[in-house]
Inverse folding.
């Protein structure tokens, strides 16, 4: 294994989510990943939390392999899905259901639609990265220590039904959020937050 202290000096904030061009990640084990040149890195990203238990964890790998033999994305509810629903309800007893999605982008889009339908309000206040749907593209305040780009990305291609895209809460400050909510009283359906973007 390579000297990880050297890599820590070069990548003080952890491994970036995209390696330099021409360098490929070939495998991961636990909290480390290796590239095609034989270098080893500590993975501080871990799929943005999706693999927080680590890469190649034997129990998870065996469970995934066993389920794959029984089929995936089946057209109805399964026992495993019901167990997850029950566990989620135990954690959040005020809820009455759960909806499962294939991507985070899809889940956020569904949550926004439900919030608008339930409240009758059109506006969403958002901070951070919430997927690749047109409506959710915005200039970010920072991402792994990088500064925001000099110009905002293009506005939504499709927009929302009433032509009001989400309000950008960029500084992550509770005072500015209070100002946004006060100036849009009675119009905000939900506040969508990516906690990673609230750092720094």
């Amino acid at each position: 294994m390579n000297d990880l202290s050297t890599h820590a000096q070069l990548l003080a904030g952890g491994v970036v989510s995209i390696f330099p061009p021409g360098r490929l990640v070939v495998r991961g084990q636990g909290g480390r990943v290796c590239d095609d040149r034989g270098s080893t890195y500590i993975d501080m990203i871990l799929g943005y939390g999706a693999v927080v238990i680590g890469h190649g964890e034997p129990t998870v790998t065996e469970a995934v392999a066993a389920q794959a033999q029984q089929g995936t994305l089946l057209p109805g509810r399964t026992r495993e899905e019901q167990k997850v629903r029950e566990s989620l309800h135990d954690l959040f007893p005020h809820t009455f259901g759960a909806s499962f999605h294939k991507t985070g982008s899809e889940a956020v889009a569904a949550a926004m639609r439900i919030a608008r339908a339930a409240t009758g309000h059109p506006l969403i206040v958002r901070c951070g990265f919430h997927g690749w749907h047109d409506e959710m593209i915005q200039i970010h305040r920072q991402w792994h220590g990088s500064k925001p780009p000099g110009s905002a990305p293009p506005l939504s291609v499709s927009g929302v039904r009433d032509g009001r895209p989400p309000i950008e809460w960029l500084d992550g400050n509770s005072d500015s959020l209070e100002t946004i909510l006060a100036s849009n009283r009675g119009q905000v359906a939900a506040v969508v937050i990516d906690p990673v973007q609230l750092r720094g």
In short: The beta strands are 25-29, 32-35, 40-42, 123-127, 167-168, 188-193. The helical segments are 4-10, 58-70, 79-91, 104-119, 174-183. Confidence is low (pLDDT under 50) at residues 1-16, 140-146, 151-162.
